[in-house]
Every structure is written in C-alpha cells, then in structure tokens.
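Predict the structure of Peptide deformylase.
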Amino acid sequence: MILPIVGYGDPVLRKVGVAITPDYPNLKETIANMYETMYNAYGVGLAAPQVGMAIRLFVIDTTPFSEDDDLESAEQKELKGFKKTFINAKIVKEEGEEWSFNEGCLSIPDVREDVYRKPTVTIEYCEEDFVMKTEVFDGLIARVIQHEYDHIEGVLFTDKISSLKKRLIQKKLKNITEGKTFQEYRMKFAAAKKGR
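Done. Here is the predicted structure for Peptide deformylase.
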C-alpha cells in the first residue's frame, strides 16, 4: 500500500525515533509499504518518520543511482541492487574528508542543496531478522544511509546548509508546510492537520 509522505513542517519529522522490537505491530507490512511508497515517489531511501511513524526504521534501494553515466563501473555495480532495511540503526563512526553532493528529500519536494558529509560510515543495525550487524559503507551508499539516519534522529538535510541558503529557500519551505506544492506522489501536510 502506498502511504502519504509527510511534508516539511510536520512535527513527526523532528522527533527522535524510538527503537522497536520484533513484535512491533504489522512490521513486515509496514516495511513492504515503505518500499512501495519509496518506489512510487522515485526515491532511493525512506525513513519511518516520513510516513508518520517516529520509529527507528528506514529502507534504502540505491539502484536508480547506478544509472548515472558519470560513475565508474565498479561504483555503478555496487549501487545496482543495493537494497536494505535498517532497524534500530546507530551510526558508530563517520570517517574521511567531507565531500559535497546535491541532496533532495521526498518530504521537502523541489528543494535541492549541496550537503557535506563524511564518505565512510560504520553502522550497527538489524535487518528484518533482528540479528544485530555492524557494517562499514562508503560513497553514495554511505551518503544515503546518513541522510535516512538523520531522519530517525529528527534531523533534515536543510539543517546542514548555510544560513544564507536557508534564507533563500525559506519561501519554498513555507509553501510545503502550507501544502502549496504539487507532487506526483501522495503527500500529507502540516497545515492540513491544523485544519487551515
């Protein structure tokens, strides 16, 4: 089932997600719905807060990035078919020299900005089997993980840009909060909740 994606301004996007247990209600269905919602919106990642749930869960599929002709074939191969569910994730370490990449977010449509992040992350997480893993990821995969991980910490990519750039996008952010944006995917807006 395709879920509505929560737009910028909704308080759920600012909540730190809570850890879940294997008996979390309808977990398999929730994960399946999140993948379906992400694919419907042409995203490469989606975190539970973006569909209104303040829990530590996000899904990633970097396959669309593998179609970028500017990438080396080894990186394209790595990105193609990288699909993973992260439950109760905790970034243990971020390493390397920060690099810039133009990021966007399904909850903040029509806004893209260059964001600096470290190239390598070490992360502890569970997949759907709830077996704890510790893995190291780098490059674009690490970046997508960091972006989605920020969501479960109540952080948005717009928090990581300069105050000048924040001022320049202020009007767009206000429009999203008020639901004055059109996307080809379902969205839910903060202003609509308040009955405005």
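Residues 5-193 form a domain with the Peptide Deformylase fold (CATH 3.90.45.10).
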